[in-house]
Amino acid sequence: MQGSLRFRPIDAEAVESPDFVKPRLLRRDANALLRGLSLTIRGLRKSFGDNEVLRGIDLHIPAGQSVAIVGRSGCGKSTLLRLIAGLESVTAGTIGFGEETRAEDVRVMFQEPRLLPWARVLSNVEVGLGRERASADAQARAESALVEVGLAEKREQWPAVLSGGQKQRVALARALVSRPRMLAFDEPLGALDALTRISMQRLLERVWQDQGFTAIMVTHDVAEAVALADRVLVIEDGRIAHDINVDIPRPRRRGSAELAVLEGSILKNLLQGTEDSSDL
Question: pTM of the prediction?
């Protein structure tokens, strides 16, 4: 039976089930929790021809939670993200959000900034407004988003003169300008140098805390996952093999013993999965 992407309310009894993870308080401003979008996936399967990439995915993400998805190359983590964002159609199963949503409620930030080379920085950010780009306050909203990512002074620059980190900040501003309730990140920092990557990690964490959106990040970097996420999902063989809560207070000190122990545990699981698969 062909699956479908459904934007529908989540059953109240299901949310109270012990299988569901309750949202934790993200900020002092309780209104921020209302901005995030909850997500429930049931029996999700995705195939490309005869190749089944995802099989039997069941998942609930509470509104406002930050989740990282890790796994070896080809395990299906980016496919899962694209399905959540509506960029791919499901083969079977359902993807449901906590209430009626609009297309602009869910945004995606990719590894490549994908800026328009013929448009100045401010215009690139305005693209994120979609149909609202023609509104009277479009420019003011775009300028506000650039302030949020620390690039207000670059508003009239061309993308070609920006550094890699600056281009990703513009891409983030473009994603934030419509005030999405869920942001999906597909390896957004993978091409950056180490220092720029740390700076961008701090920026992503700050805007997530400030705005209260639900964040779902695919990354190959386990250290990045445990530094940023409330929860780390390990994908193996098209399934969620491990679902790990990161119960370490924020702000987290990168390089701390607590983060190192958790990172080592996740890496051990990934290596064990590699050994198991080699025996098949």
Answer: 0.83
